[in-house]
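Model it.
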Amino acid sequence: MFKLAWHNLTHERTRLAISVGGVALAVLLILIMAGVFAGSEEHAVAYIKNQPAPLWLMQEGVANMHMSSSILPPDAVVRARAVEGVREAVGLLYANAGVDVGGSLIYSYIFAVENGAPFGGPWKLAEGTANLEPDEAIIDKELAARYGIGLGDTVEILGYDLTLAGLSEGTFGIATSISFVNKQVLAALMGVPPEAASYILVQPEPGVDLGALADRLREAVPEANLMTQEAFAASDQEMIRQMGADILQAMNIVAYIVGLLVIGLTIYTATLERAREYGVLKAIGANTFHLMQVVFVQAFISTALGFAAGVGLSYAVAALVSRLYPEMLVLIEPETLLQQIPVLLVVTGLAALLPLGRIARLDPVSVFKA
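Modeled.
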């Protein structure tokens, strides 16, 4: 049965290439769209994931950074630092704002920590310094290069002209960018004391039990919500995922329809063209059920080859896009690949149903007529 199905498919190599290519393009569309969204999610939580702080304190009722606002009392950082088992507690101010770069307004996450803070600033600095004066800022080097600016040039953030004192790496994505400013300046613009914090990043002493430390921090700063770094990042990613879910689902439906049509039409036309051979097989004893199995095997072989080609193309396109456009991360995750398999099996099964009526009605006597 497999040999017959393979022979039917490879007899017309052009048609097989079209079938496999169509499925591959459908898979490519699905994986690249999912990869763009996954990459956007990863960029959105890049700051959270790249700080060496497994515990985060934030305003009560706040559970994410994206599309939210948080302010803690000015003495909250001091109280957190005094907790037994805390190695470092860094107060971070955060705001959403547009960064005017070369006349273009780029949506950005604005972060600020005290100069000399052990973390909280850019995790990778390409050029310049992370200790900012009141009139200085840091933006991503890819963003700066796109607009032809560098150290010493001026950008506008929150309505103020600031000189670039540093350029960071890994802080520019397709949906947003990350910028850093002086904390005293950001505090004044936000109308809060310089000691205040939007979030407190907590780094424990080595060997300290995080659960017990979290309990002590909740007692010391009862007005704050405490989350682990992992849970905080996951919460932000889930919010972004929900915002893009409708678009992603619509694109996936289009891709699945393309795959269904390509597989269905290919198998249907191949069946019609080889109707005489099916009739001969029926005449020598093959029943309709066996011939239907051949049709299904053909469909699943085409889909399997197309899926493999589509996955290979997706990784190649993702690598090319990241090379040409460093700000665009196309993240193809293994679980995304696995999620497509059962759906493609269903789509292929539906496509294989198209020629079954023709097979069932096939009269073996007709193939011997002149």
